Amino acid sequence: MTKFFLQLVGLSLLAGLMLSQANAQDNQTESASDTTVYISDDLYTFIHAGPGRNYRILGSVVAGTAVTLLQRNDEEGFVEIIDDKERTGWVDNRFISDTPSVRESVPQLEQSLQQAQADLEQTQQQNDLLNQQILDLSSRNEQLQTRLQEIQQQHGELQQQLANIDNKIQIEWLTRGGIIALGGLILGVILMLIPRKRRRNDNWM
């Protein structure tokens, strides 16, 4: 009977001790909103069943993994999280970061780099197209300049031909006028040299 009583007292004390530890843990645990935090880079950390290394290990969380922060236990230096495998547990607060890790940033940076490269290629293609259009316009301009010079040369030749024709016409008119004048002069001289016939004098005896 005494032994049973001692066992009962021992169980009661143990239950009271566990209850007091649970209350103390609840008092020491700081509630936190469900925010996203990250496991520090170049590390992996174990996830425990409670706020301390003495609790059972549930697994490990790879460095750079985004996890959901549930609450903090500042006295033990642990935080309760939900990891990417939907496991709820506690990890050392030293391995938690508020900023995205390199693991999270690298894919975004690679995507941004790919987009920038695609934009650069598109810009280069547009630049090549514009350069080709400029070359085509320059070639067309040279052709038009050459054609303009040919037309100007033809115009000059036609002007010279017209001037030559005018000079020729003037010379012809002068020549004809001279011939006519000379003919008139010769005709006048001939008329002066022809003797006039004497009139018959019917009154002579």
From TrEMBL:
Residues 106-168 form a coiled coil. GO terms for cellular component: membrane. The keyword ATP-binding does not apply. Residues 1-24 form the signal peptide. The chain crosses the membrane at residues 173-194. PROSITE patterns: SH3B (PS51781). The keyword Coiled coil applies. It is found in: Membrane. Residues 33-100 form the SH3b domain. Keywords: Coiled coil, Membrane, Signal, Transmembrane, Transmembrane helix. It is a single-pass membrane protein. InterPro entries: SH3-like_bac-type (IPR003646), SH3_dom_pro (IPR016476). NCBIfam families: SH3_and_anchor. This is Peptide-binding protein. It comes from Lacimicrobium alkaliphilum.
